[in-house]
Amino acid sequence: MSVGIRYVLPGDEVLFDRISPDVFDHPVERAQLSRYLVTPGHHLIVAIVDGQIVGQIAAAVHYHPDGRPTELYIDEIGVTPALQRQGIARRLLDAMLALGRELGCREAWVGTEHDNVAARALYEPGSEPPESFLMYELRL
Fold this sequence. Notes:
The protein is an alpha+beta fold. Helices cover about 20% and strands about 25% of the residues. It has three helices and five strands; from the N terminus they run βαβββαβα. It has a five-stranded mixed beta sheet with strand order 1-2-3-4-5, with helices on both faces. The radius of gyration is 15 Å and the shape is globular. The termini are far apart. The model has no long low-confidence stretch (mean pLDDT about 90).
């Protein structure tokens, strides 16, 4: 199996006509995808097998006005369950971290649930010790 890793640009929306199950948390909406791709600082990389998206990682560059280092916030990563544990998530993460370095980011951060064993195994090898924090979801 040959897995291609591709940085998604505006105009690449046709790639999303074929997506394996459970790569994203919700169905991809074409208008929302197009807005995401043209928004400065938003980045999406996909893994493709035989013309079908089998994995994805989304991130945003986070600039701070007070001189803190520019960060890459990794929003989500997903690989279709049929192809998990084959190194696809690692390749996606490595590609996004390399992009972050190219963009001048000095740090990257990602959050996950305490019981998400697979995610923790992916993130912990290259990480500082994990920090606990509270997250609040504010309704708009």
